[in-house]
Design a protein that fits this description.
heterodimer, A: 190 residues, globular, B: mainly beta, eight-stranded antiparallel sheet
Chain lengths: 190, 759
């Protein structure tokens, strides 16, 4: 399939799961530290997109890794570390939602001014701005696909595992969504 | 809709559009420090058992509710009261049945440019709309010819009269509102077709009606919702007390089917610190009398399998089985071994010279022994793999599972491994991949030795929520069924009067994965290797010759002298010799088609293509050699259309559709009298017969083994069937005569049957 060639291009940007390292992390904190370094940014990016503010995202990121640290010995399938980690992250978002009720949906993220945001000076492209509006209007399940793929940097098998869906179905759903967004961006700019 | 490929820039813009700030370095460093301090100052602790963690508070609350619920409404199906009303519809899956279910009023077809899309069914429930359609007549030319070119990826949707679009969700579409009974299925383009190569913008009008009263909807009983409970049970005042359990094998949902049950669960064994486990075989189900319960995997509940009860990735499992005659409780057993880290500090180094310009596929045979944590590992070879990395191949003793490798002074961007050491003939592989491949003399450090511990079987027991009174006390085979799993275990060897027949097998020639065509007598004697590295052989009608495909053309071998002649320039597979011996039908590929039916004279002359669709398979010749039967798959494998071709008139007739055959490969074969087509089922473990006009379809082999492979008829009406008997690729070969249900085991024959000749 053509998708495989496209995956090759983007897979290099995803945190690779070194199964040996995951096994080692069960007994060696230094190995866990390596895993932490690989995943802390994607986890934070994902959680920021879910919570909408740096404070909650950092809080949930910390809780995610603390739980992961405490429970990694129970991870049976080392190759599924990423989906395991993000399933913890998703639970942490839900925990925050239950306890704080102040999670900001990504619908409004474009309007948030983040005080300590070193990227706030970055000029987003016109396309990104349009995309932000289109993404804000998407149903939650479609936004989650984008978050998991582009912020969490999950591979398709990991997304499928996390979402309890067939890998091909996830691929198709995402590519359809991307095609739709692309068309909509083009229409907007025409 | 045109073909579209997402670009890196577009995907980067999507990422940017989320406007996520960079992580604060001070936060990242602080969290890292916190983790390290925890590692140093405390030993890893388990969760406090009745502590203050919210999850346990929730767990205890649910437990209390369960206990109260149990006392009020009885011990069974307690959780059903807490769950949505879930129902199971065979072929559709688990659905929300809190609203009336509707179905498609009648199938709808639209044909354009010779391509037909048919909506065959629709199921409308409160949570989704499930639509099944199939496509036929799509030419291979509509698809990209290269892997790196992507065709159209359509966004199919349902379109309501008021303009509402219902998009795809969870394997279906958004639910159709209760009062809306008409919709259009909009298919912008057919998946993966090239622009302009197939009609686009399909619109199929659908009409929905209330589901008929006899629509099968079975209740789904949730047994263990999050958090997991209901594993150990005791009695309190006559009611069942459900207590938190710690079982590795969990049954989460139970569905009562017409003849048995579907169980859905997850497997999550507890292991000690530094331990993990490796499952070593398929799980088994046995009943209380010790009988093995044969089960299949119910594909239609796939969406509901895979995560554990906490929503974490686990090893989901599901099983569907017949329940007649079973004695409860059933025991579900997962076999495996414990894996344990050897000395984490132990390392061993080797060096090898990769040179200045290592190339993919290049291999260095090191055959060097190293000592690691008191165990000997042989580094057999190092290979440059296709992922811009090095793959290290090890040979180890039965106690070693795996080890890791690192190349000194380098930072890999990924890695992996395969094999299970002592579990897989003493071999495993560990690999590293790089953005830039390291070169020169490399020092490789081998560490993190994992040892294979004790074999273990994790078990749990399950009994149905209610005792069934609608099932027979003993399994009764369906009329016409010649073999079941039970009768397979008692098969007799082929009798002497058949033993002088011969059979052609495709089988392993040695332990190094070399396969070839081998001739046997039917009693498994007289083994003769006819052609190494060859497959797809077929007997001539008189049984004196064998034809098989090779790169330079079809080879025809005289079985007595082993002399071969080559039909040069004839290339293809799935060879079928006509009963009059004059022609060979085969599946070949030309400039415009992929895998279509061709016929060639048996001397290699007058080759002709007889059909135009693609991905066809030959069923066989009629006994008078005047008709050739073949099947063509619907797009995506949703069924097979059966055709006959008459060479004299060069005409093709559309006969009927096989709906319940294997999507993967039908393996259809025509009986020598032309009366029956044998084929394997969707589940791959049943065998059906049907007349060539589509009538009298019936089951003949009812799940005798894990899978059914190739089928070959003899001239005298015996059907040879290859069976896979377990998950380790072990096989058996049987002989069936459907007209009187005689079945025999052909001893010592393992592999795939290619041809059979009986006297």
């Amino acid at each position: 399939m053509a998708e495989s060639s496209r995956e090759t291009m983007t897979e290099s940007q995803r945190p690779e799961v070194d199964i040996g390292l995951v096994k080692a992390a069960k007994g060696d904190p230094r190995a866990f530290a390596e895993l932490y370094q690989s995943f802390v940014e994607p986890v934070f990016r994902y959680l920021y997109s879910r919570t909408g503010n740096v404070h909650d995202a950092e809080d949930a990121t910390a809780q995610t890794f603390l739980v992961a640290f405490e429970t990694i010995a129970s991870l049976r399938q080392e190759e599924h570390l990423a989906s395991w980690l993000f399933s913890i992250a998703r639970h942490k978002v839900m925990d925050q939602y239950r306890t704080q009720k102040r999670i900001v949906s990504i619908d409004f993220v474009a309007e948030i001014t983040t005080e300590k945001d070193p990227l706030s000076e970055v000029i987003r492209s016109e396309q990104s701005a349009t995309l932000a509006q289109l993404i804000a209007a998407l149903p939650e399940d479609e936004r989650e696909l984008l978050r998991l793929r582009f912020l969490a940097s999950l591979s398709f098998p990991e997304m499928a595992r996390l979402l309890r869906r067939n890998e091909e179905a996830v691929k198709k759903s995402l590519y359809r969504l991307l095609a739709r967004l692309h068309d909509q961006v083009e229409v907007t700019h025409d | 809709m045109t073909s579209w490929t997402s670009s890196d820039i577009f995907e980067e813009n999507i990422k940017n559009s989320f406007n996520v700030p960079a992580i604060r370095p001070e936060f990242e460093a602080h969290l890292n420090e916190e983790l390290m301090q925890r590692a140093i100052s405390t030993k890893r602790k388990t969760w406090r058992i009745l502590g203050l963690r919210p999850a346990w508070a929730i767990s205890l609350a649910i437990l209390l509710m369960l206990l109260l619920g149990t006392l009020v409404i009885g011990p069974q199906r307690v959780y059903a009261e807490f769950a949505r009303m879930l129902g199971y519809i065979p072929g559709v899956g688990i659905v929300d049945e809190s609203a009336p279910i509707r179905v498609l009023a009648e199938p709808v077809s639209v044909t354009r440019d010779g391509i037909t899309i048919t909506v065959t069914s629709a199921t409308l429930t409160a949570d989704r709309t499930q639509i099944a359609y199939r496509i036929f007549g799509l030419p291979a030319s509509a698809y990209p010819t290269r892997e790196d070119i992507e065709g159209c990826m359509p966004s199919e949707y349902l379109h309501l009269a008021d303009g509402t679009k219902l998009v795809q969700i969870n394997g279906g579409y958004e639910p159709v509102p209760a009062k809306v009974n008409q919709a259009f299925l909009e298919i912008p383009c057919i998946t993966n077709t090239l622009p302009g190569k197939a009609p686009e913008n399909w619109e199929l009008p659908l009409r929905f009606v209330a589901a008929p009263p006899d629509l099968t909807v079975m209740p789904v009983i949730n047994l263990t919702p999050f958090p997991q409970v209901a594993q150990t049970q005791g009695n309190v005042g006559g009611a069942t007390l459900v207590t938190p359990g710690n079982s590795a094998v969990n049954v989460d949902q139970e569905i009562e089917t017409s003849d048995g049950y579907i169980l859905i669960g997850h497997f999550q064994p507890q292991t000690g610190s530094g331990e993990s486990f490796q499952q070593t075989d398929m799980f088994k189900i046995t009943d209380a009398s010790g009988k093995n319960v044969s089960y299949t995997y119910p594909q239609d509940v796939n969406e509901n399998v895979n995560l554990d009860s906490a929503g974490m990735p686990g090893t989901g499992w599901a099983a569907q089985f017949e329940a007649a005659g079973l004695v409860y409780p059933l025991t579900i057993s997962f076999p495996g071994v414990l894996l344990e880290n050897a000395d984490p500090a132990a390392t061993a180094d080797i060096t090898f010279d990769a040179g200045n310009d290592p190339q993919p596929g290049q291999t260095w045979n090191l055959n060097q022994d190293i000592q690691l944590a008191g165990h000997t590992l042989r580094v057999v070879s190092v290979t440059v793999d296709s992922r811009n990395g090095y793959s290290f191949n090890f040979k180890v003793g039965p106690e070693v599972y795996s080890a890791d490798v690192q190349i000194a002074g380098t930072t890999p961007n990924g890695g992996g491994g395969g094999g299970g050491g002592g579990l897989t003939n003493g071999t495993f592989e560990s690999s590293l991949s790089y953005a830039k491949l390291p070169t020169g003399v490399l020092t490789v450090t081998v560490s993190n030795l994992i040892l294979i511990g004790d074999s273990k079987t994790w078990q749990s027991q399950w009994s149905p929520a209610t005792i069934r009174t609608d099932l027979p006390a003993h399994p009764t085979p369906q009329a016409g069924v010649c073999l079941t799993e039970n009768s397979f275990a008692h098969l007799q060897a082929v009798p002497a009067d058949l033993a002088n027949g011969k059979i052609l097998m495709y089988e392993a020639l040695d332990n190094n994965n070399h396969w070839g065509l081998v001739l046997y007598a039917l009693d498994g004697s007289d083994r003769q290797v006819l052609a190494a590295n060859a497959s797809g052989g077929t007997f001539s009608p008189d049984g004196n010759q064998m034809a098989y495909p090779a790169e330079d053309g079809f080879h025809v071998m005289d079985l007595a002298t082993k002399a071969e002649k080559v039909l040069t320039g004839v290339n293809g597979f799935d060879l079928h010799w006509s009963p009059d011996g004059k022609q060979i039908a085969y599946v070949g590929t030309s400039e415009n088609v992929i895998d279509s039916v061709f016929i060639v004279n048996s001397d290699g002359t007058q080759m002709s293509q007889v059909s135009e669709p693609s991905y066809e398979s030959i069923i066989g010749w009629s006994s008078d050699s005047k008709e050739l039967f073949f099947v063509v798959p619907y797009t995506g494998g949703a069924g097979w259309k059966v055709y006959s071709y008459t060479p004299a008139s060069a005409s093709t007739q559309d006969l009927f559709t096989i709906d319940n055959g294997s999507y993967k490969a039908l393996n259809a074969a025509l009986s020598p009298d032309g009366q029956w087509i044998a084929y394997r089922s969707q589940q791959l473990n049943n065998l059906y017969l049907v007349h060539p006009d589509g009538s009298k379809m019936h089951l003949v082999l009812d799940s005798p083994a894990q899978g059914i492979g190739d089928l070959e008829w003899s001239q005298s009406g015996w059907l040879a069937v290859s069976l896979s008997t377990d998950s380790d690729n072990n096989t058996a070969t049987i002989l069936v005569r459907p007209e009187d249900c005689q079945v025999y085991l052909l001893p010592n024959l393992h592999g795939e049957v290619q041809g059979i000749f009986t006297p």
